Amino acid sequence: MINVGFQLVSIDASEVRGLGRDGVGEIPVKDGGSLADAMRMVNLSPDKPYMTLVNGDPVAPESREEKALADGDQIVVFPPIEGG
Amino acid sequence: MGWQGKVLRVDLTAGKITPEPLNMEWAEKYIGQRGLGTKYLSEEMDPSVDALSPENKLIFATGPLTGTGASTGGRYSVITKGALTNAIACSNSGGQFGAYLKLAGWDMLILEGRSPEPVYLVVEDDNVRLLPATDFIWGETVWDTEDKIVAKHQNPHLKVASIGIAGENLCRYACVMNDRDRAAGRSGVGAVMGSKNLKAIAAYGTVGTRVANPEAFQKANVAARAKLDPSEPRKRLSTIGTHAMLDVTNSYGSLPTLNCRAVQFDGASSVNVKAAHTPRRSDGRANLQTNKACFACSIGCGRVASIDPEHFSVKDKPRYQTSLGGLEYESIYAVGPMCGVDDIDAATYASALCNEHGMDPISFGASVAAAMELYDIGAITKEDTGGMALEFGSAEALVWASEVTGTATGFGIDIGLGSKRLCEKYGHPDLAMVVKGQEFPGYDPRAMQGMGLAYATSNRGACHLRASPFQDDFAHIRTEGKAAIVKKSQDRNAAWDSTGVCLFAGNAWEVDDLVAQLAGALPGDWSVDRFFDAGERIWNLERMFNLRAGLTKADDTLPKRVMEEPAASGAGKGRVAELDKMLPEYYELRGWTPDGEPSSQTLGRLELT
What b/e string do you get for B231-249 counting C-beta neighbours within 10 Å, with b at 16 or more? Predict the structure, then answer.
């Protein structure tokens, strides 16, 4: 198992699992696990139009299943928000 | 049907008011509001005139869905040649005023000339009159102007659009304000109104609106509402508002900070949504009090805030120790991170003063940030400011700047020039973070390449609402594909802004949800293709206005800083805005020549010849 940091930004954390009420925490992921696996671990569907960063780099929705994680990676997820 | 079919022409020089029929041929092609207002402006005036001269015209235009009960259908736009940009200006506002103007029976007001004395206009159905503003509301703030007009006319239902002291004094980014804190905010439309000696327009209507096919309209409206109301974007905008963007851009590394010297802000947690929701020690209240909505809107993205009564900005000022318009993303970005200020109460105060005096908080904040950088490098001194240390991060300097700029006092007159003119005056034009003279909204184009193209090609100068490259920008730091995304969303937004409905409804709706409502409200056949055709026509009409005004391809650019100084951190670390890789493709997709001019074939296809 590896451990990755997880942070939700501007997303309601009440329905996620394994993170604090502020949407921040660390979760275990199986060796070789992907970003999509990590999202499922916290009850976020990788198919939803969230925006995702791993260690500050954007990962497009179509690449989440292939994006392999390493121990200590930091994941940030935010909604498909537009400005105004 | 949808349209009222009536335009009110007001010759301010002669004091003459003339109703006339709406040009229905134009309405069919340009829909209303932004598109139709631009068509009238383009046909009626020479775009090369001085924006602050009597020859410039000022148009208040509603859309065919304004006031109909369509979800979020309360919008109006102010269309003119911009005092900030010398380009086409079209600023869109919500609140109640636009709907009331439409309910009074008018699609559009066209204001011409310059009144010899300050005046205001009252529109109560067909009872329209120009009245003297001197010794009444001239010299008053936006808030006092609204209160005084309502009291004098003894009609609590009057809705007022006005300029503040900034507009009277021709602050280059003065707004037209309505309903206290809603703004037709960008490009200096309030300065144009001030140049015409027109202080305010008050509207109240009992005529109502009609739609062509009530059954189809109602069906489409109910379906669109059922889609919007339970949607995640609506819930998010209602609860945490646009303010939520600050954590997103800060995480991503696209939050313009310290006049774009940086792309992430160390003090973000002091001015973000969480900070706005956290009760403070002094009175146990949070900065954010509640939300509020515009006419017929179920989103309610508007913020109502309160400032800590013990904060230095409002101490001994009971006027500001009450509920005020709160922080939205663009305002907090500009008066917060862009200036390096991490004091949420100072930011809320500065934003409130922008509302009270009628200034665009984006351009104001970015102009203060430019002034702070000029001060930092020694180009501006305490001698210039009258003793104020205009340092990055200084909440005191921000509060002071909002007061002196709003009231056009001392160095505030220079800040009111806008970043471009300010930086030129003090010998450092490259420090102005502007496109076509208009300040950046809250997205740094080094991490958001599509936004860079959107800024550079926006007809009204740097703008985050003219195109919607957000989702692709937050997923891919690349230049490939951005031109098509920007072009398509520019056409979409141009048409959307012409309907009377808020762009935010588009966070939940597809275009066909809106087109179904248009099809119910208007005669004739409306389709998604016709909608996009109208949007492309409007975009090109705006472009032609700018070319006739003297703008060229050289104006489709970005500040040197973002094109030459790589981002120091975030997702775009090491990157610059690569406009040169996107602009040629964009011109080609638009059917423009390499010099950025619509080809004769394009003009013919869009019926613009």
Answer: bebbebbbebbbbbbbbbb
ipTM: 0.88
Which residues of chain B fall short of a pLDDT of 70?
A: none
User: How far is B203 from B201, CA to CA, in rounded Å?
Assistant: 7
Q: Residues B352-370: pLDDT tens digits?
A: 999 999 999 999 999 999 9
pLDDT of residue B280: 95
Residue A48 clears pLDDT 90, i.e. is over it: no
B248 and A60 within 8 Å at the Cβ level: the answer is no
Is B476's CB within 8 Å of A60's CB? yes
The partner residue sitting opposite A9, judged by closest CB among B251, B328, B507, is: B251
State residue B78's pLDDT score: 98
Q: Which residues of A touch B240 (CB under 8 A)?
A: 10
Nearest to B248 among A56, A57, A78 (CB): A78
Q: Report CA-CA distances (Å) from B151 to B127, B158, B325.
A: 18, 10, 22
Contacting residues of B for A55, CB less than 8 Å apart: none
pTM of the model: 0.97
Contact A53 B503 (CB under 8 A): no
pLDDT tens digit string along B35-55?
999 999 999 999 999 999 999
Instruction: Please give the DSSP secondary-structure letter assigned to residue B279.
Output: P
Q: What is the mean pLDDT of chain A?
A: 91
Nearest chain B CA: its distance from A46 CA (Å): 14
Of B110, B83, B80, B23, give the one whose Cα is nearest residue B542: B80
Point out the residue among A53, A78, A82 whose CB comes nearest to the CB of B507.
A82
Of the candidates B492, B486, B590, the one whose C-alpha atom is nearest the C-alpha of residue B533 is B492
Write out residues 133-172 of B within 8 Å (CB-CB) of A: none
Q: Which residues contact B257 (CB under 8 A, 6 or more apart)?
A: B263, B264, B265, B337, B338, B340
Residue B604 CB partners (closer than 8 Å, separation 6+): none
Alpha carbon of residue B186 to chain centroid:
4
Residue of A nearest to B471 (CA): A80
